[in-house]
Amino acid sequence: MINKLRILHVLGGLNRGGAETMVMNLYRNIDRSKIQFDFVVHTTNKCDYDDEIRELGGKIYRMPRYNGKNHLDYKREWNVFFFRHPEIRIVHGHMRSTASIYLKIAKSFGARTIAHSHSTSNGVGISALVKNIMQYPIRYNSDYLFSCSQKAGEWLFGKYHFKKKNSLVVKNAIESERYIFNIMKRDKLRKELGIDGKFVIGHVGRFCVAKNHRYLIDIFESIYNTDNNSLLLLVGDGELLEEIKSIVNDKKLSNAVMFLGNRSDVFDLLQCMDTFVFPSKFEGLGISIIEAQASSLPCIISENIPLEAHITKLVQVVSLNRSPDVWAEHILREKDNSRRVDMSGEIKKKGYNVNFNTKWLEEFYCEII
């Protein structure tokens, strides 16, 4: 019996974020007779993808959250882990804050290491400063430097290091066929959600500072003041969810904003929308925008989205320096937009083909071993 090549993916958790969804798209399509993914997460909570990972044969290990005070204990936990798991041949790190610690330890046990950048900022404040300092050594103790976009790679690893031969952009491929616009699905789900006849503005993303939900609510308020038949559909969860709900309530928009939480059927929910709005403060890529384009949705996005996400003519950029009213004007122009064009072929042409990317990654993993 051939021993499978076991790849360890390191993440904060396994909920439906951009990095996690990318890894799961690859995991579902990879040849699991040859390669098996295992995971280290930094949470004790059950996550969205836990059950599916176990069904696919993967193992989930848990590490304590790093807080600075537990620095020695954190290092000790990783040393013990790699001592007990010599079967781990490659460590693919998506969690950058402590990657300089666990990737260095992984190398000392003979594993090949990959650091993968999925963002372009740590935010602001002391916490961001500490993360910036901690992540600096990653460029030196990783065998390979991956990123979801050129901008994300240069931000984490530096322009000089991201020009080297061990650095490359790995596109966050999607199963584009699942997103093809289907009028029957749209009508059925809109009736189920009770939004039939509404002008639906949609957003998919974690409720965190980067996604800029506060500004999104201001934009929607302007839209609603012009057209009170409008509705905002928000998909996702996160630490700012309750704060955003409170803002919606204060603005007396509760009847016009739907919070759907984390969903496994995003490809169907996109069918319900009329326009996709993404006013992010920073993004590594913005995989949700690619999914929206695959569903033939007009996308109104901020200037902070990397150019790699601008795949089709459906994308319009509006600066965050412009007022919510200006954003509202752009969005309302899309009210009568037709969505009958199949964009899946265009998505594939730009390299966001999950079958191609999975095959490439299989070969890459095998070659570096």
Mean pLDDT, as a whole number? Answer: 95
Radius of gyration: 21 Å
Structural class designation? alpha/beta
Q: Mind summarizing the main beta sheet?
A: 7 strands, parallel
Point out poorly predicted stretches: none
Number of domains: 2
What share of the residues does DSSP label as strand, in percent? Answer: 15-25%
Give the strand order of the largest sheet, numbering strands 1, 2, ... along the chain: 3-2-1-4-5-6-7
User: What is the CATH topology assignment of the largest domain?
Assistant: Rossmann fold
Following the backbone from N to C, one meets helices and strands in this order, namely: EHEHEHEHEHHEHEHEHEHEHEHEEHHH
Structure explained in plain terms:
By secondary structure, the protein is α/β, with parallel strands linked by helices. The chain has two domains: 185 residues, Glycogen Phosphorylase B (Rossmann fold); 174 residues, Glycogen Phosphorylase B (Rossmann fold), CATH 3.40.50.2000. It has 15 helices and 13 strands. Helix 9 packs across helix 13.
Summed up:
This protein has 369 residues and is an alpha/beta fold.
Outline the secondary-structure elements.
Elements: E1 5-10, H1 18-29, E2 35-41, H2 50-55, E3 60-62, H3 71-84, E4 88-93, H4 99-108, E5 112-117, H5 126-135, H6 138-141, E6 144-147, H7 150-157, E7 167-169, H8 183-193, E8 199-204, H9 213-226, E9 230-235, H10 241-250, E10 257-259, H11 266-272, E11 275-278, H12 287-294, E12 299-301, E13 315-317, H13 324-332, H14 344-349, H15 354-368
Parallel strand pairs: 1-2, 1-4, 2-3, 4-5, 5-6, 6-7, 8-9, 8-11, 9-10, 11-12, 12-13
